[in-house]
Every structure is written in structure tokens, then in C-alpha cells.
Amino acid sequence: MAGSEVENARCFLKYYQTGQIVKDFPDAHRGEMKRTDVRVGLFGLTGSGKSSFVNTVSRCVEGKDMELAMVQSSGAEGTVILEEFGFGGEGTDKPGFRLLDTRGFDILGEDANKEMLAILNGDIRDGQFIDRGKSIKTSMLGHDYQLSREIHVVLWFVKGTDPRLESGTYQSHMQFLRMQLLNRAMKTLTIITHDDELQRKGCTEQQRQDIVELARQITGSDRDQTYFVTNYMMEKPFPTERVQQVLDIVKIALNAAEHTIRMRQSKRKQHNRMVNLSN
Ligand SMILES: Nc1nc2c(ncn2[C@@H]2O[C@H](COP(=O)(O)OP(=O)(O)O)[C@@H](O)[C@H]2O)c(=O)[nH]1
Ligand SMILES: [Mg+2]
């Protein structure tokens, strides 16, 4: 039974096409859904497990045992790269969703803020290097939405075993991102990684709840939008329950993203109507 459930979830994601969950997009432009792929932004400090998650999804959806995203890599000083990884849409000419692996936001400041915004707005694409010295043309308000380019849902990664969680240094660190997500009404799921290490340390239920609460103070996600995850490690066994858990989280993220797309299409339509009325 469990095996077929996991197989169904895997199959769903492998063939997933944008719009398949919500289905009804009354305010979409003609052909828009066919052109759009869901863009899932992975944020979080270096070492929180974002790149490992890309590889974990690849393993769970496609059964691939290889490193797509470079784990534990740090960008050269002053440089940030955004990497996109397409999944789903098997048999069609475009992926159904993309995971956008970000890095380099450990350094605070105006430049880092601009980069985060540019990624959220879709002004930085795959493999593009960001020269921190140069200005990036992006809206600080995030009003000029380009639906097919911007991010539709955020997975915010927190390392469950990170001692900085307790000290509270995290909270202020990514407040800018939190504000931006709030302003955009962006659905955010909190992913607490290194669950295997927590289990190995004999973490109690109470301690887990405390970690959820600490993570919530950083990301603002509710408890029911917070998930513990163990990432897949090359050549290590990865039990079916863990596969199922990862597939479930991806599907929840896609659902949220489709709702974002539908909401923004409706907002766009309302906006255009207002503009027409005032002309
Ligand atoms: N034990 C364990 N190690 C993990 C987990 N997720 C990531 N790691 C390790 O943590 C380190 C940082 O992971 P990485 O994916 O590069 O983090 P990123 O900087 O956010 O992309 C690597 O050595 C990973 O192997 C996990 O769930 N459990
Ligand atoms: Mg990384």
C-alpha cells in the first residue's frame, strides 16, 4: 500500500504541469498557463540544506542518484549565483516547476537586499552572476509583476541543529526577506533540515516543538506550514517514509504556488480594469 502511494506521488510530480492542482485560472491570459512554470524559491543561510534539497527532490522524483546542485559550495567573495533546476513536465517541452537555489545571503546589507528582491521579482536568471558593485534594475516595491518570471512560493530553510537558532541571531538577520514576503502575501513554507541528526541526538517532542517555535520567529510560518526534513545523502539508504515526506512537501508547495499565480492574475485583471476606467 505504502509503496503505491509513494509511486503515485512520484508519478504526479514527474508529469506535473503548471496549473494541474488548482485547475481553474479564470483570469489567465490565453496560453499563459502553458508558458508559465511554477517557480519555487529556496532561501536560507549557507549550510541550511537548500542545495541538498534540490538533490533530494531529484532523487525522490526522478530516482536519480547524482548531485545536481552543488552541496556545501560557497560563491566567490562578492558573487552570487542563482541556479534553476527544472522538474516535472515529462514528455512536454518545458518543466512543470523549477527549484531556484540561491546562495550568499549570509552577508547583510543593501546589496544583499537588492539581490533577494531581484530574485523574487525574476530579474535575475539562471547562472547569472551578480556583481555586487553594479546596481541591479529591480523594483524595491515589487509592483511590476511579471507573473511567469517571479517566484510563486518560498521554501525557507533552517538547519534544525544550528546553535544560532537559540541565540536569536537569526531573527534580525533575514528580517528584510520576511518583510518582503509579507508585503507580497507570499506563501512561505519553513523547512527544518537535519532531522536525522535531531533524531540521533534523542531530541524530545518538546524540544522539537521549541525548534518549530524558534524557526517560526525567523520565517513567520505557522506551525502547520513548518516541516522537518532529512535530506538525501549520496549512497546512503533513504527510507520510503522520507521519500513520501519530500514528495508531499513539494506538492504542498506547488499547490500554494498555483494559488499565488491565480491570485496575481486576478489582481492584474482588476488593476487593468481600474486603469481603463480612469482613462
Ligand atoms: N545529516 C544531514 N546533513 C545534511 C542535511 N541537509 C544538508 N546536510 C549537509 O549540510 C551541509 C550543507 O548543505 P547544503 O545543501 O550545501 O546547504 P546550502 O548551503 O543551504 O545549499 C552539507 O554537508 C550537507 O551534506 C540533512 O538533512 N541531514
Ligand atoms: Mg547551496
From TrEMBL:
* InterPro entries, sorted: P-loop_NTPase
Q: Out of the domains of life, which is the source?
A: Eukaryota
The protein in question is named Uncharacterized protein LOC109468241
> Which organism is this entry from?
Branchiostoma belcheri
